[in-house]
Amino acid sequence: MARRLAALLAVGVLLTAGPGSATAADLIRGARVLAPDHVRLTLAAPISNVAPANFRFTEARAPDVPIEVRSVEAQPGNRVLLTVDAKLDPAAAYRIEIADPPAARDVRPAPWALLLTIILSAALINNFVFTRYLGLCIFFGVSKRRDTAVGMGITFTLVMIFSAVLSWALYTLVMTPLKLKFLQIIVFIGIVAFLVQALDTILKKTHRSLHQRFGVYLVLITTNCIILAVPLLNAAANAGAGESLALAVGSGVGFALALFLMSCARERVELARVPKSFEGLPIAFALAGLFALAFMGFSGLNFMR
Amino acid sequence: MSGEPILLTDRPPSAKALLLNGIFAENPVFRLALSLCPAVAVTTTVANGIMLGVAVLFVQVASSVTVALTRQWIHPRVRIPIYTIIIAVWVSTIDMVLAGFYPALYAQVGLYVKLIVAFAIIISRLEVFASRMPLIPTFWDGLGMGLGFLFALVVIGAFRELLGSGAILGHAITAEKPLLFFALPAGGFFSIALLMAFFNFVEARMLKARAAAGRPGAPAAQAASGGAHG
Asked: How far does Cα B122 stand from its chain's mean position?
């Protein structure tokens, strides 16, 4: 009965105070999601009421559906540890509201942590080659020798960053306001083709030796699906500039890493005695399968604890 | 584009030869090893494979025919960007059609439908065939290549769905799941390795049998085996 009263009171106070008013934001100094189901609040002043009903925890996407707070534990240093009845995602955005005294705050990861997560996730956990199977034509084409693999990896990462930033700018600043989203495929492939051609011409005039070394790879990049997949994924997720850049860096590094690993393995397979039917591409596919199995080990990687 | 020069004769070949060439002798996936990304990515089930295969078939035929019709106005120096734009237009079309009519399937393979625009097989057929042959053979070549791709996706999809989840097209054939491994990401690579090796093996046996019978191997088959290592 007392609990229900408290809940009623909490709703009433929330309605009158309203989330995010000036005094409310000051009480909660910091809020962090600690996986899998804890939230730690750092308060400006000690709080007397630590009943679970005093706290309301919601997902930022669904502010009407409260996640039940199972227990609240006061810790030294004006800290409060909440245990909630759901598996939390440290990369997602939540909102915590306190009824007495009234306070509210958005719980979201630090920007640098989010960007680091995107980069490492794109490079290792969801490696574009081994778990999303993109860019395979180029991957099998240039992974025969180690130096070509390194050259392609560097060229690709740089072009990827340029093209993702350009695509993001055009998509967010031009295509979205003009309602031209349906043209995204044509525009993105156009950007890649334009960028590759422009870089090729500029490098040929200004840095002849660089062009001799990396020019071949530049032309090949147009047929790499990853360079198109990253802008498309960014557009689908409505990513911001930083997130787009992070995905581009992560996918580029991941592709370069995959190429390098594969070229090392293939140089050794050249010397091995492979059954006649498996010579060439089939054994390369089997190698890629082994790498993909190994990369599954990264799926448990979580560094936002 | 690592494809070998293919069928560079003056006289356009017959429709039947072109269709069979696309499906077997120069199968885009097993023989030319082009456009492999979707072949691994969407083939966890037969239904996904069919959906993407049909999309590629449509884009290949439509862009081949468009190029054959318009090539007299395309300056050779800017042909690659123009081809890319033509492909992108047709990919946008099929992308919107599939998203509108098959939303459930599209949710699984949507990204790969959009990525058809970067498939090496389509632009290499435009470059090798559609830019120099008349309209009718171009149509058959596009159809053959598209069917070859569809065939490859269905074979890989059936192989993986049968071994991975013991079903074909969602209908359970065995009660248990024999080898879950083949439904996993890594299984896709192994399935293609096994199927490619199988095709190589069959071809080597056929060539040997033909040589034993006193006939030289067909030139198309030799060119194709070169391409498979490219």
From this structure: 9
Partner A, chain B 193-222, Cβ-Cβ below 8 Å: 193-194, 196-198, 200-201, 204
| In chain A, domain spans | 2-109, 112-299
Answer with the residue of higher pLDDT: A305 or A152. A152
| Residue that has been written with the tokens 């008013």 in this structure | A21
Q: Is the pLDDT of residue B220 over 70?
A: no
Helix (H) / strand (E) containing B172 = strand B171-172
d(CA B112, CA B27) in angstroms, rounded, equals 20
The residues, ordered by sequence, that sit 6+ positions from A99 with a Cβ below 8 Å of its Cβ are A6, A9, A10, A11, A13, A14, A49, A53, A54, A55, A56
From CA A164, how far away is CA A161, in angstroms rounded? 5
ipTM of the complex: 0.77
Residues of A in contact with B200 (CB under 8 A): 276-279, 282
Q: How many whole angstroms separate alpha carbon A226 and alpha carbon A221?
A: 9
pLDDT at B147 over 50: yes
- The CATH code for residues A2-109 is 2.60.40.1220
| DSSP per position, A170-199 | HIIIIITTTT-GGGHHHHHHHHHHHHHHHH
Of A131-145, B1-15, B86-100, B193-207, minimum mean pLDDT range: B1-15
Q: Is A279 exposed, middle or buried (0-12, 13-18, 19+ CB in 10 A)?
A: middle
Chain A nearest CA to B112, separation (Å): 9
H or E stretch covering A79: strand A79-84
